């Protein structure tokens, strides 16, 4: 199968939330007779791979002319992403690290302190920096891409959904957008989708941790990444810097 478009984001950046918004909208718009849930959402918006339960084989509506949109969290690869229209969702590194830390704690995959996790070479901040540095040059030269910040998704989910639909050349139906936002919000409130408010990191990180992340981002994030994130309003400098 070949997707009409990809939703790409680093893990813990709101991709699951955006997937549910789009899936709820498409289920209503195309009368799919399905109540979207964490179990069946992949039948409407699969992952961008061939694994049977979550990837393209799980897509259940190829006979209904439903737009095929897939989700991908992988760093950019020519063979995996080239030629696809791309909806890129980005979140600030502070909230990403906090969300990843608690997600892995829930999965009992790590017992490190928050500070140790931040500096972990594979799971912590390094993963986000590497992901952004790989994607940004490709996105800035992409002829068919649109960008959404987690902050804008958190502030106005309906507007973010409309951005996706406009990008796909699907004329949005305001009533269905409202219903999709309500349905996804209900899943959020029931904790079936774990998300957090923009800036939630202030409640979980010590000032020295925030400063360490800021300095590391300033040092290792590429100019391409800095420009891209600034253009869509992703916060990377919560503390004023002397060189600003």
Task: Give a topology summary.
Layout: E1 5-9, H1 15-29, E2 69-72, H2 78-81, E3 86-90, H3 93-106, H4 114-118, H5 125-140, E4 145-149, H6 150-155, H7 157-167, H8 174-189, H9 207-220, H10 223-231
Parallel strand pairs: 1-2, 1-3, 3-4
Helix pairs in contact: 1-8, 7-8
Describe this protein's structure:
There is one protein chain. Strands 2-1-3-4 form a 4-stranded parallel sheet. The mean pLDDT is 91. The protein has one domain (5-231): Rossmann fold (3-Layer(aba) Sandwich), CATH 3.40.50.300. Helix 1 packs across helix 8 and helix 7 (157-167) crosses helix 8 (174-189). The protein has helices at 15-29, 78-81, 93-106, 114-118, 125-140, 150-155, 157-167, 174-189, 207-220, 223-231, and strands at 5-9, 69-72, 86-90, 145-149. With 244 residues, it is α/β, with parallel strands linked by helices. The longest helix has 16 residues, at 125-140.
CATH architecture: 3-Layer(aba) Sandwich
User: Which sheet architecture does the biggest sheet show?
Assistant: 4 strands, parallel
Strand tally is: 4
Kindly report the CATH topology: Rossmann fold
Strand order, sheet with most strands: 2-1-3-4
Unreliable residue stretches: none
End-to-end Cα distance:
48 Å
Secondary-structure-based class equals alpha/beta
Tell me the count of domains.
1
Radius of gyration: 18 Å
The secondary-structure element order is EHEHEHHHEHHHHH
């Amino acid at each position: 199968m070949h997707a009409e478009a990809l939703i790409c984001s680093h893990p813990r950046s709101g991709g699951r939330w955006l997937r549910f918004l789009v899936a709820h909208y498409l289920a209503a718009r195309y009368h799919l007779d399905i109540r979207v849930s964490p179990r069946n959402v992949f039948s409407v918006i699969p992952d961008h791979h061939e694994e049977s339960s979550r990837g393209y084989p799980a897509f259940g509506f190829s006979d209904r002319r439903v737009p095929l949109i897939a989700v991908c969290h992988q760093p950019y690869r020519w063979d995996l992403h080239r030629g696809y229209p791309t909806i890129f969702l980005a979140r600030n590194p502070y909230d990403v690290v906090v969300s990843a830390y608690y997600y892995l704690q829930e999965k009992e995959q790590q017992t490190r302190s928050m500070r140790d996790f931040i500096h972990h070479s594979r799971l912590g901040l390094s993963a986000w920096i590497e992901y952004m540095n790989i994607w940004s040059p490709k996105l800035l030269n992409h002829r068919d891409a649109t960008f959404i910040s987690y902050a804008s998704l958190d502030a106005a989910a309906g507007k973010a959904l409309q951005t996706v639909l406009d990008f796909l050349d699907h004329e949005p139906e305001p009533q269905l957008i409202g219903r999709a936002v309500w349905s996804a919000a209900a899943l959020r409130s029931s904790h079936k989708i774990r998300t957090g408010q923009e800036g939630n990191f202030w409640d979980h990180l010590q000032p020295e941790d925030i400063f360490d992340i800021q300095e590391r981002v300033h040092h290792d994030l590429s100019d391409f990444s800095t420009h891209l994130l600034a253009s869509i309003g992703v916060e990377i400098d919560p503390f004023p810097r002397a060189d600003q």
